[in-house]
Amino acid sequence: MIIQYNKLWKILIDKNMNKVQLKQEAGVSSNSIAKLGKNEAVRMDVLMKIATALDCKVEDLFETVINSKENINKDC
Questions:
Q1: N- or C-end of the chain: fewer Cβ atoms within 10 A?
Q2: H helices within 1-76, ranges in order?
Q3: CA 8 to CA 72: how far, in whole Å?
């Protein structure tokens, strides 16, 4: 399973906000923002800070997608 933060970027667009502003508003590190940009996992407290800054729920920020390789390897 992979994580995609497309929902987060849509929220930023809707709020006319950029990544630097998000970093400042949420009080998170540049490294965390970079990980989000690469669809890498970040700590839950980072997601909670971002959700608080954007006035949304944590689950509004990302979605999980089943990796096609995992799908092929599993007998479902």
A1: C
A2: 6-14, 19-26, 30-37, 44-54, 68-73
A3: 29
Torsion (CA) 17, 18, 19, 24 in degrees, nearest 10: -60
Q: How many Cα atoms within 13 Å fall on the side-chain side of residue 40?
A: 8
End-to-end CA distance of the chain: 15
Residue 49 contacts residue 27 (beta carbons within 8 Å): yes
Q: How do residues 44-66 score in pLDDT, each as one tens digit?
A: 999 999 999 999 999 999 999 98
How large is the angle between the packed helices 44-54 and 19-26, nearest 10 degrees? Answer: 100
Tokens of 43: 């700590």
Instruction: Please give the Cα distance from 34 to 31 (Å, whole number).
Output: 5
